[in-house]
Amino acid sequence: MSVWDDLDLLLDSPSSLSVTSNTRGTVKDKANFKVEEDVAAIRKAIEGIGTTEKTLTEVLAKRSNAQRQLIAQAYEKATGRALIADLEGDTHGDFEDLLVALVKPPAVYDCHEVIKAIKGAGTTESTLTELFASRSNRQIKAISDVYLAETGKLLTHDLKSEVSGDYGKALLILAEGKRDESSFVDAAKAKADAKALYEAGEKKWGTDEGRFIDILCHRSVPQLRQTLVEYKNISKKTLQESIEGEMSGNLEELLVAVVKCVKNVPAYLAERLFESMRGLGTTESTLTRILVSRSEIDLLDIRAEFKKLFGYSLYSKLESEVSGSYGDTLKHLCGQD
């Protein structure tokens, strides 16, 4: 029995770990979806002489995650083999990573990205920062549930041994997935928090990082939006500018990411995509993670923010930066503006 079978405890249906498709995604359920036809096409693509990569892209990038789960189940039933194992055996490199990412349920994929970031030599803080700053409580809870099912351990427990200092403190609060989710905005509290942040940073010699962590990692998003406005009134600087001036390293990056996500998650992720394709070389793991994980949530908004920030479309940037079957699949997910 695979660990994915153990996850049945968490699943009520094939798509219950997937994010509910919404109108801001680029990938939707395929109309007239016929799972048997898709399985036959994938088998032909994998089992024939030479793998037909185009077919794998056409099928997997143009189905919703819930439909991919049905394909994976039917494929295993028909062949006695796991679809992911066959994809890993017949494709390679970034293209393999991308197809495997598409076939995993979203929470499983996010969880595996966390595991990759904390295992092995050195911890990849930038991945942890992106994931925990941009995910909702519900998504973080789903990641933790998968982690427990797969490892038998608490995610926060294992994170504790991998991250330290003020960065570790802030990340662990976010990883608990307990940010206030009330939509009520307390104007007086926003003013008091803005004043406390100003006094903990700009106004004093040395910075009280704990105060920044407490407010930015616990308050609700609407409450923090009001706090950002009040902070600018007091300081004449934005809170992001103050954090960048007062802090450094991983803690600065995490708190700036939190502030950016409070303002606009798609804009933050558009910046991450831009950075992953900037300068020499492309960070394919970041491209894959963002395009796969947001394709049914807000990739349309990310595309719009990318164009607004950088003056050209995400699709055109992908055309110039990535190629082959990997590039074609990413472009399918992105769609043209």
From TrEMBL:
User: Where does the source fall among the domains of life?
Assistant: Eukaryota
- Family annotation (Gene3D superfamilies): Annexin
Q: Which UniProt keywords apply?
A: Annexin, Calcium, Calcium/phospholipid-binding, Repeat
Q: Quote the entry's note on domains.
A: A pair of annexin repeats may form one binding site for calcium and phospholipid.
What is the protein named? Annexin
**From which organism does this entry originate?**
Hippocampus comes (Tiger tail seahorse)
Q: Could you confirm whether the keyword Repeat appears in this record?
A: yes
Tell me which family the UniProt entry assigns to this protein.
Answer: Belongs to the annexin family.
Repeat: present as a keyword of the record?
yes
Q: Which InterPro entries match?
A: Annexin (IPR001464), Annexin_repeat (IPR018502), Annexin_repeat_CS (IPR018252), Annexin_sf (IPR037104), ANX3 (IPR002390)
Coiled-coil regions in this chain?
Answer: none
Q: Which Pfam families match?
A: Annexin
| GO MF entries | calcium ion binding; calcium-dependent phospholipid binding; phosphatidylserine binding; phospholipase inhibitor activity
* A single GO cellular-component term on record: nucleus
